[in-house]
Amino acid sequence: MRQRPLTLVQDELVDYEKAMERMAALVEERQDDARPDTLWLLSHPSVFTIGKRTLQSHLPDPSHGIPVVPTGRGGQLTYHGPGQLVGYLIVKLRPDEGVVDYIREVELRLVEALAALGVPAERRDTPPGSELLTGVWTRETGRKIVSIGMRASRSVTSHGFALNVDGDLTPWRLAVACGMPDVEMTSVVHEAGGGSMDEARRVIAEAFEAS
Prior knowledge:
CATH topology: BirA Bifunctional Protein, domain 2
Structural class: alpha+beta
Site (Lowers pKa of active site Cys): 144
Number of domains: 1
Domain BPL/LPL catalytic: 33-211
Protein name: Octanoyltransferase
Family: Belongs to the LipB family.
Organism: Microbispora corallina
Number of strands: 10
């Protein structure tokens, strides 16, 4: 991978819709070259977010009480909550790459980070003629540990990835994650038998050359 140093911004728990407002401002600043490429690490209170193609049948039963919020990113339904590390990537794409190329780079950097956290992981190739398969899976158990949904506007990316570190996995079973009825979600703690959010933040920052 080519070097791509990022400026690191860190927060704790940020309301999803407030985070979207701030991310939009960060994207506009990057489009105007008013700020450098940025990795923003944070977490959200419990919320399901849905992409434009999410099927109604994939949504959770409203009786569970977790909000469902439409979003402009690619991908389908995902869950955010405490114990999950979200990374928003506000990056100006190079002239020779598109957003899919960058997503593939993001996957590889996350595989590297997970190895440092004691979780052998892999990205998966998309079968010919199929919808883009994004995210990171554990190599030994075949469970999904990172969800990815991104878009680009005026050559600048937004949204990013969500790594399950040490949070409650129960909400994932209330809906169809990532448009994949058979997917089983997992976390660093579940796979490695240990780990912490502080360690995950450090390792992710290193993998993305962010400081």
